[in-house]
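User: Reviewer 2 asked us to show a designed sequence for the structure in our supplementary figure. I'm pasting the structure tokens here. Could you produce the per-position amino acids so we can include them in the response letter?
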């Protein structure tokens, strides 16, 4: 068997979304599974929409996911002259032709087509004219076959065909001298010896056009694998302009690369009833025959569940690296905690995102501790100040700082402050020690805070509450 060669060919016109990354993943996996090559091609011929920041972003995302490519990336913008050489060779061979039709004529053709309820298409006016008009702008159109069919066997969808008379003579070189997508793709795939083209099913119409160019140049036709679309939870197609589907939003929220890869693998591919696939298993098990024909729904709850699994099961060393990178990415200072590892171990089973771990850890950093004045208005009565004094005295006198003794102090407060509901005592203690209304078990938080921080925060809270009451 010849080497399998796949490619990922994004255009730097926006942020990559989940669908783009799944295409990259499947292409990468199929190459790795077959000891082949995976190439990266930047399709940057759209000079009006290209942005260099998106090129850097593409590299960043692929590297973050571990989808490393072979050889140097190829930039289409650096190959314009090469494309034009082939186009003018095709012009000499009468495979393409110059079209001088202006915007107004093309607009009129379109209006007539729509009026007659037919698909808009060029009327081939310049096809056999052999025009060569000096100082007048022109495009170059491909001479599409007038008879027969375009037929190819897609590995996912099976036989797909269209009559050639449904295709028009499409443009392959714009009037500004820039070749179009469908032409560049054919030339690059041939020159890169691509054996398997993996991309979304929305490219099927492009495949018909590309196959006809391939045939006219007597190139080998690669294998095509069109992937069913990924839809959001509302059933809409993902796009670069849909922020919720952009991969960087998941990174910023604290998803791990392993969970993203796992979730994307399962969006259209299955193996038995397995849900969790580590990367080494993906490379061993992945195949093209198990790709489903139906569209997949991006289920955010399922993605969270997968992320929770990886957060709970990767090594602490790797987790701390991810957590550190997450904090740096979001320009967040790393909490200064003596018992950081112990705190992280406690919160892991309850964490879906790296953000959850961080949100819990900062509870224990005095630099992040403050009392919201609006929330404090609920606790301005004298009895709450007395309650805080009680806890301050008892916790400061506590010799053995453990969960049992901490709970005993809290239980004793129930007997002394009988006019207060037990749940309300927990609420008061939680707010004045953490600044938050909702947290995990307050006894555990007190344990992790330690005596000195508990004393500091109770003193701070008593002062704040006393001043608050005075100014009412």
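Assistant: Here is a per-position design you can include in the supplement:
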């Amino acid at each position: 068997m010849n080497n399998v060669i796949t490619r990922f060919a994004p255009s730097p016109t926006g942020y990559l979304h989940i669908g783009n990354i799944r295409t990259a993943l499947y292409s990468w996996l199929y190459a790795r599974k077959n000891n082949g090559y995976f190439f990266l091609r930047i399709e940057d011929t759209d000079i009006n929409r290209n942005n260099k920041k998106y090129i850097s972003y593409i590299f960043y995302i692929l590297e973050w996911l571990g989808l490393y490519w072979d050889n140097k990336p190829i930039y289409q913008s650096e190959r314009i002259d090469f494309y034009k050489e082939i186009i003018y060779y095709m012009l000499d061979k009468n495979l393409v032709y110059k079209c001088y039709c202006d915007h107004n004529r093309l607009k009129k053709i379109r209006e007539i087509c729509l009026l007659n309820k037919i698909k808009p298409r060029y009327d081939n006016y310049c096809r056999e004219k052999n025009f060569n008009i000096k100082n007048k702008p022109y495009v170059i159109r491909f001479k599409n076959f007038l008879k027969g069919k375009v037929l190819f066997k897609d590995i996912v969808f099976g036989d797909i065909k269209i009559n050639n008379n449904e295709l028009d003579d499409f443009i392959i070189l714009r009037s500004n001298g820039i070749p179009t997508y469908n032409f560049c793709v054919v030339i690059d795939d041939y020159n890169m010896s691509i054996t398997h083209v993996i991309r979304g099913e929305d490219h099927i119409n492009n495949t018909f056009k590309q196959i006809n160019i391939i045939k006219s140049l007597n190139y080998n036709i690669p294998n095509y694998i069109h992937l069913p679309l990924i839809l959001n939870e509302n059933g809409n197609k993902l796009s670069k302009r849909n922020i919720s589907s952009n991969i960087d939003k998941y990174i910023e929220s604290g998803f791990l690369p392993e969970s993203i890869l796992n979730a994307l693998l399962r969006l259209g591919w299955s193996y038995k009833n397995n849900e969790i696939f580590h990367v080494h298993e993906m490379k061993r098990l992945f195949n093209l025959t198990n790709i489903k024909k139906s569209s997949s729904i991006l289920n955010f709850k399922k993605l969270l569940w997968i992320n929770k699994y990886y957060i709970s099961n990767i090594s602490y060393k790797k987790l701390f690296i991810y957590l550190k990178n997450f904090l740096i990415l979001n320009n967040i200072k790393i909490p200064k905690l003596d018992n950081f590892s112990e705190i992280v171990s406690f919160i892991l089973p309850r964490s879906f995102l790296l953000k959850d771990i961080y949100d819990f850890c900062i509870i224990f950093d005095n630099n992040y501790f403050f009392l919201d004045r609006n929330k404090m208005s609920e606790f301005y009565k004298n009895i709450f100040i007395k309650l805080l004094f009680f806890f301050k005295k008892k916790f400061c006198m506590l010799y053995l700082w453990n969960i049992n003794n901490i709970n005993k102090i809290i239980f004793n407060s129930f007997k002394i402050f009988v006019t207060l509901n037990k749940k309300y005592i927990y609420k008061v203690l939680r707010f004045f020690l953490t600044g938050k209304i909702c947290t995990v078990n307050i006894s555990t938080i007190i344990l992790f805070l330690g005596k000195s921080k508990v004393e500091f925060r109770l003193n701070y809270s008593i002062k704040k509450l006393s001043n608050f009451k005075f100014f009412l």
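For the response letter, you might also mention the following. Residues 249 and 452 are 38 Å apart (CA to CA). The mean pLDDT is 91.
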